[in-house]
Amino acid sequence: xxxxxxxxxxxxxxxxxxxxxxxxxxxxxxxxxxxxxxxxxxxxxxxxxxxxxxxxxxxxxxxxxxxxx
Length: 69
Fold this sequence. Notes:
This protein is mainly α. 70% of the residues lie in helices and 12% in strands. It has a two-stranded antiparallel ribbon. A hairpin with a 2-residue loop joins strand 1 (33-36) and strand 2 (39-42). Helix 1 (3-29) packs antiparallel against helix 2. The termini are close together.
């Protein structure tokens, strides 16, 4: 593995860990709250399945990229 590949893998692993943390928090809290510079936004419960699906897709794409490295 080259230095560039190792750096890419490290960056992908950071993103994967963030997604896992978000997923864990969503399971525990049954909600998602996002803090932005202009305030806090919470997503309605009916949006949760779509957000969970998007996170799963992102996780799959990250893991596929990691496996290619």
